[in-house]
Design a protein that fits this description.
The complex is a heterotrimer of chains A (about 290), B (about 140) and C (about 130). Helix content of chain A is about 65%, strand content about 10%. Chain A is of the alpha/beta class and about 290 residues long. In chain A, helix 4 crosses helix 6 and helix 5 packs antiparallel against helix 6. Chain C has a five-stranded parallel β-sheet with strand order 4-3-2-1-5, sandwiched between helices. In chain C, helix 1 packs parallel to helix 2. The chains are: A alpha/beta (about 290), B alpha+beta (about 140), C alpha/beta (about 130).
Chain lengths: ~290, ~140, ~130
């Protein structure tokens, strides 16, 4: 009687063929993301590793050294697929369709020994389920990395410091203000104050969906840091509902200059720097020209 | 948690503080920590080292570059054989001081770093461990 | 009419040095009858609670002697750290640089100060 490993080894090509068929027949397979040749090469590598590990008789612990190659390849595949935008279903189907192929082949080979077949199926089922869990774990980790990187990028690009006038900076904040974001806002703002020698910074919170006591604390910190540098800070874009929450929560903003709109904040900034903006009399000029 | 670099410094007098701060900065620069995060860590270290000099007349600091879950950071361990802190909760409160300081040392240091751990045994000594990650989180 | 004092701190100070600075500076205010003190900390990379307290003390003491204090040139990283530490230097005026600090002192004192030439007295950093 042949051992399971021997049976599988002997029928390796058939398993691979069936596995490829299973994968390719899946309507959801994204051939736009990967060529068939590539898939075939990847699958063969994976199957080779798996059979080598199984030939050692280990069906239980996929964290043992003989599975290292298999798990490494699998992690690689999952991470790559997560980054390329494969769906969880497509990624999971990779191992699950292998299970199907292996079991189909075993059923063919063990027609006359059902108790042996039963035992083998149980073992392989268990093994491939574990590998499938590993696939998902790695896939999710890959997605999380993508999310983390995007979060970093968003917080970088979403805090532009605008020079609205000589000596006056404006910083529109869009989205929620958490502590990591506050850090970036502060760093960008203070550096720009140094670079431009500005005396006044306007923090516009029109784009902040809600202000709770934590967000208020972050705003107060930013204002305090700006003052330590020797510049003054005005907070603008306070909508009616934000004013209501601030008062209801008992947040004290009395030490901070606040304005309803960016326009009125700019107006205040002008008067603080002794600037005056006036409409020029143009009509006289026009008459003269006629 | 893997320790990559390790160094120990004895702090027995005020003049040791500035070289110690510079050593922390060196560690920070080596792992590519941003200036703001370096400044936060060094300021926290400065507070803790002052406490050590003031209340325990000195001690030693272990500086380590550590790596954990793909994050790199600096761990500083302040050990002294001073009188210890009887009421830790009180000592961690803003504005509380048994000396004549602002009472911002311990709570302030805690706010400046990512991880803060204080163990004290009255009559035996105090150990404060702080960790600050390269990216500040 | 008193002149302004300008102190540039060029190294990171340890505590006793900072206390010496406080002492010398206050004596200097008293001797010169200065109406304004500018402390340039642009070269200082660390301000902890002790140094913060010294700056606050200098401002309070000077004010009693009728002089205003302006801390100038604080680095962004230092400002962010101080705020996180919980120290906002209440009662201390700040300015971006020496020039703006001088302007600020002039406006603060402008009402009762006839502006002749701004006299300035430089004082070196102390390494004693």
């Amino acid at each position: 009687m042949n051992t399971t490993a021997q049976v599988l080894e002997k029928n390796k090509e058939r398993i691979l063929e069936k596995w490829m068929q299973n994968q390719l027949s899946d309507a959801a397979l994204r051939d736009d993301l990967m060529t068939n040749d590539e898939l075939q090469r990847q699958s063969r590598e994976m199957l080779d590793g798996l059979l080598r590990a199984v030939s050692k008789g280990n069906y239980d612990n996929i964290y043992d050294t003989e599975f290292e190659q298999v798990t490494d390849t699998l992690r690689d595949i999952s991470i790559t697929r997560a980054r390329q935008g494969f769906s969880p279903r497509e990624t999971g189907a990779y191992v699950l369709s292998l299970k199907q192929a292996v079991i189909e082949v075993l059923v063919e080979q063990r027609k006359d020994d059902t108790s042996m077949l039963y035992q083998e199926i149980m073992q392989l089922n268990n093994l491939l389920d574990n590998l499938s869990i590993l696939t998902f774990e790695t896939f999710i980790k890959g997605r999380e990395e993508v999310i983390l990187r995007q979060t970093d990028e968003i917080s970088e690009i979403s805090t532009p410091v605008i020079r609205v006038w000589d000596g006056i900076l404006a910083l529109p904040i869009i989205g929620t203000l958490d502590s990591a974001r506050t850090q970036v806002v502060m760093e960008n703002l203070l550096q720009e104050i140094v670079n431009t020698g500005s005396n006044i910074a306007i923090l516009d919170i029109s784009g902040v969906p809600a202000v709770d006591s934590l967000v208020a604390q972050h705003l107060i910190k930013t204002v305090s840091a700006t003052r330590l540098m020797g510049a003054e800070c005005i907070i603008s874009g306070i909508r009616a509902e934000i004013a209501q929450t601030i008062v209801h929560l008992g947040i004290d903003l009395s030490n901070i200059k606040t304005k309803a709109s960016l326009a009125s904040a700019l107006h205040l900034a002008f008067s603080m720097t002794n600037l005056e903006v006036r409409r020029t009399e143009r009509n006289k000029g026009l008459k003269l020209m006629r | 948690m893997i320790v990559m670099t390790k160094d120990t410094m004895e702090i027995v007098r005020e003049q040791d503080v500035v070289p110690f701060r510079n050593r922390v900065r060196e560690f920070g620069t080596r792992i590519g920590m941003s200036l703001v995060n370096q400044t936060k860590l060094i300021t926290a270290a400065s507070e803790l080292v002052r406490n050590m000099l003031k209340y325990a007349s000195g001690g030693r600091v272990i500086l380590e570059v550590i790596s954990h879950n793909a994050k790199t950071g600096i761990r500083l361990t302040f050990q002294d054989e001073g009188p210890g802190i009887a009421d830790i909760a009180m000592a961690m409160r803003d504005g509380f001081s048994t000396g004549r300081s602002l009472g911002l040392g311990l709570p302030g240091a805690k706010r400046l770093v990512n991880e803060f751990d204080l163990k004290s045994n009255p009559g035996v000594g105090t150990t404060v461990t702080v960790i600050h990650w390269k990216h500040g989180r | 009419m008193g002149p302004f004092l300008l102190v540039t701190i060029q190294i990171d100070l340890y505590d006793r040095l900072a206390l010496t600075l406080e002492n010398d500076l206050i004596n200097m205010v008293s001797q010169t009858g200065a109406r304004g003190v500018l402390i340039d900390i642009s070269a200082v990379s660390i301000v902890d609670s002790f140094m913060g307290r010294i700056l606050g003390n200098i401002a309070s003491m000077s004010r009693i002697m009728d002089a205003e204090t302006v801390v100038v040139g604080m680095q962004p990283a230092v400002a962010i750290t101080l705020v996180e530490l919980g120290l906002t230097l209440q009662g201390v005026y700040t300015a971006l640089n020496v020039e703006k600090g001088m302007e600020l002192l002039n406006t603060k004192l402008g009402d009762n100060l006839e502006l002749d030439d701004d006299e300035e007295e430089d004082q070196d950093d102390r390494n004693d």
